[in-house]
Amino acid sequence: MSTTAAIPLLGNPRADRVKALARLATASGRARAGAFLAEGPQAVREALVAVAPHRVRTVIATAAALQRHPELGPGAHRAGAELLECTDEVLAVLSGTRTPQGVVAVCDAVHPTLDDVLAPGPPALLALLARVQDPGNAGTVIRAADAAGAGAVLLTRGSVDLHNPKVVRSTAGSLFHLDVVPGADLAETVGRLRGAGVAVLATDGVPGRGSADLDDLLDDAEAGSGPLSGPTAWLFGNEASGLDPAERELADLAVRVPLHGRAESLNLATAAAVCLYASARAHRRRGAAAGALTATLGEIAPGVSHTGNVEHHTPPAPGDDGDAADVGHGAHS
């Protein structure tokens, strides 16, 4: 028996429910419903396993898509989401692409705040997007930030709608992996990040703009100094005009991305990926160096910590060896 036989069918593209779902492609429709559409199997899979406050309300897929991606049905069930089968005609109404991928999900629109980002302590890496208008650029930066291990992306007022269908598609599911804060006030955000010990670095990929070279900052980080050696927020500007002088002035440092070939400049998404990965590399190497130092000190002087302090260990009393472990296991039995 087909696994999709008992799934309710949306067959009429002119049905009221289909029209209501299609309105989620508009900003006003999303605002009224408090929801947005995620399209494609990758985005839907990531949405279904995302942690709260993310939630999938409904998964809508063609029969062919459910056969190609059999994990979607059980995934919807585990997430407590409604599962609907639809015709190709209905999906064409809901999809924002010329070649639909067969599945969309209705997801709660989540709007984290800067307080949410800073509550557990400042992330080691963040991205700030100032007045970024292009949906593809915004989504690609979110995806790059996720891949580089950033804890959050913040979009200032005047930026593209975070839940624009093209933004969501361009994130390829990364929207559900990290905090993405819309409508941030840039001056307030920079001030609070600086107060939390986060260095704010500005770049827009335009040659000649910036007082520091990214290659030099990486060299400094190798030596354990400079802004890349600690928590960092990268500030990126509008794709057409870059950062204006007032925005650049807010940053602790304006950074040049070196161009070693004949290209005149880098577009926003490319510059962002380069800078975010520079920070990620610096953080990884610093962590690896600290781990190696700790291991070396442990071999040379087992009683000395990586800080240089002597660690005093009280030997177990006779007969105590293993007792604590036994008690621990018993407590969970």
Automatic annotation (TrEMBL):
Chain spans, region Disordered: 303-333
Gene Ontology BP term (one): methylation
Keywords: Methyltransferase, Transferase
Keyword flag Methyltransferase: yes
Every RNA 2-O ribose methyltransferase substrate binding domain range: 37-113
Single GO molecular function: RNA binding
InterPro entries assigned to the protein according to its UniProt record, in alphabetical order: Alpha/beta_knot_MTases (IPR029028), MRM3-like_sub_bind (IPR053888), Ribosomal_eL30-like_sf (IPR029064), rRNA_Methyltransferase (IPR051259), SpoU_MeTrfase (IPR001537), SpoU_subst-bd (IPR013123), tRNA_m1G_MTases_N (IPR029026)
GO cellular component: cytoplasm
Superkingdom assignment: Bacteria
PANTHER family to which the protein is assigned, alphabetical: RRNA METHYLTRANSFERASE 3, RRNA METHYLTRANSFERASE 3, MITOCHONDRIAL
Family note: Belongs to the class IV-like SAM-binding methyltransferase superfamily. RNA methyltransferase TrmH family.
Protein name (record): TrmH family RNA methyltransferase
Source organism (scientific name): Quadrisphaera granulorum
